[in-house]
Amino acid sequence: MKIYAIRHTSVNVKPGICYGQTDVDVAESFYEEQKSLLQELEQVSFDAVWSSPLLRCRKLAESLFTEREIHFDSRLKELNFGDWEMLSWDEIYAQPEGKIWMDNYQALPTKNGESYPEMVVRASDFIREIKKQKVENIAIVAHAGVIRILKSVIEKVPISQLFENFKPAYASVTVFEINEHD
């Protein structure tokens, strides 16, 4: 089984802002980015399509897969940054608990939000569920954090290595392969 993890397009948020599970809209470049993705994916026949229910993913999924049923799944949402949603990363780091979290993000939850280990649990649960389906190609429209966690779960890459070495760009496709025996 191949999973085509598609990161949503650019968002209508100033750079440097933490938007996690805030339901932000897409940027003006949406149709240009969407067209590029359509060209990249045109040779692939998908057996199933899953998406985060957040607007930036929903819009992209519905525009890419107009003829397919799309399964919207909350397990594919970005990390919940709690009280830090829509603050700048500098504002978060300036807070004592923000600095502590940034120095230990692999284990600690965000302020009144979620931790990456909690996100790993929901992503692992999602992967276990889709592995039961007897399909070849699955499209998942999601967020950079989710795609990183999918890489961690599927390829058994430690979270500590993902944030330095793996940065899915907006409107990019990352392909993962799952063997029946994994």
Ordered list of secondary-structure elements with their pairings:
Layout: E1 2-7, H1 30-41, E2 48-51, H2 55-64, E3 70-72, H3 89-94, H4 96-103, H5 116-131, E4 137-142, H6 144-155, H7 159-165, E5 173-177
Parallel strand pairs: 1-4, 2-3, 2-4
Antiparallel strand pairs: 1-5
What is the name of the CATH topology? Rossmann fold
CATH superfamily: Phosphoglycerate mutase-like
Overall residue-averaged pLDDT value? 94
**What is the C-alpha radius of gyration, as a whole number of Å?**
16 Å
Helix content: 25-40%
In terms of DSSP E residues, the strand content is 5-15%
**Mind summarizing the main beta sheet?**
5 strands, mixed
As residue ranges, the low-confidence spans are none
CATH architecture: 3-Layer(aba) Sandwich
Estimate the global geometry from the Cα principal axes.
globular
Number of strands: 5
Secondary-structure element pattern, one letter each: EHEHEHHHEHHE
Q: What's the total helix number?
A: 7
The termini sit apart by: 11 Å
What is shown here, in short?
The protein has 182 residues and is of the alpha/beta class. The protein has 7 helices and 5 strands; from the N terminus they run E-H-E-H-E-H-H-H-E-H-H-E. Helix 5 (116-131) crosses helix 6.
3D architecture notes:
- With 182 residues, this protein is an alpha/beta fold.
- It has a single domain (2-177), classed as Rossmann fold.
- The chain is built from 7 helices and 5 strands.
- It has helices spanning 30-41, 55-64, 89-94, 96-103, 116-131, 144-155, 159-165; strands at residues 2-7, 48-51, 70-72, 137-142, 173-177.
- The chain has a 5-stranded mixed β-sheet.
- Strand 2, helix 2 and strand 3 (70-72) form a beta-alpha-beta unit.
- Helix 5 (116-131) crosses helix 6.
- It is globular.
- It starts with a strand and ends in a 5-residue tail after the last strand.
- The relative contact order is 0.24.
- The mean pLDDT is 94.
